[in-house]
Specification:
Strand order of the largest sheet: 1-2
Radius of gyration: 17 Å
Structural class: mainly alpha
Oligomer: single chain
Length: 175
């Protein structure tokens, strides 16, 4: 279980690195006239993602979940792939990537990197990680709960992003 704890803490450290990037990118976006949308759901997102990490450790330790090598190693590879996709998204969006929904006037949609194939590839990474990270060590309850709650949150989040981008497009078309 020590290796699993290290993995979850590594993912937590990665999330903290994301927050550093997001803060820098927020300053960049706001300095260019960016506006935030959907700030009301952001605290729920923070709580849910924190609960994922805590739930992984709590379930494995309290319910004494076993490490099943075939499932576990497959899920480790999946977690690594999800992290790679997430950082590909961050790289493709550059200073526009954020944990918040901030749109900057005058910038075209990004269509390179993983955005060439998926409209919301970062969320594909989140969904994948939310299933795979708990299952590395058999925390199936955490995987199910996070997936269900995340589906509800993503419905709100994606609608918020799409509406913010649509409002910006309408405003720019009028200008």
């Amino acid at each position: 279980m020590i290796y699993y704890t290290a993995l979850v803490l590594g993912v937590a450290a990665e999330r903290l690195a994301e927050l550093v990037v997001a803060r820098r990118n927020t300053r960049w976006s706001l300095a260019r006239g960016g506006t935030e949308a959907g700030s009301g759901h952001y605290p729920a997102m923070v709580v849910l993602h924190t609960a994922l990490l805590a739930g992984c450790l709590a379930e494995v330790h309290l319910a004494d979940r076993p490490f099943l090598p075939l499932l576990g190693w497959t899920m480790v590879a999946t977690v690594v792939a999800a992290q790679a996709l997430r950082w590909w998204c961050i790289t493709a969006l550059g200073p526009r990537w954020n944990t918040r929904v901030i749109v900057v006037p005058g910038l075209p949609l990004v269509t390179g990197g993983p955005y060439r194939w998926l409209r919301h590839p970062n969320y594909a990474a989140v969904v994948t990680e939310g299933i795979a990270l708990p299952l590395v060590h058999g925390a199936w309850v955490t995987a199910l709960l996070f997936t269900a709650l995340n589906a509800l949150l993503m419905a709100v989040r994606i609608r918020c992003e799409d509406e913010a981008l649509a409002r910006l497009a309408v405003a720019e078309a009028r200008a």
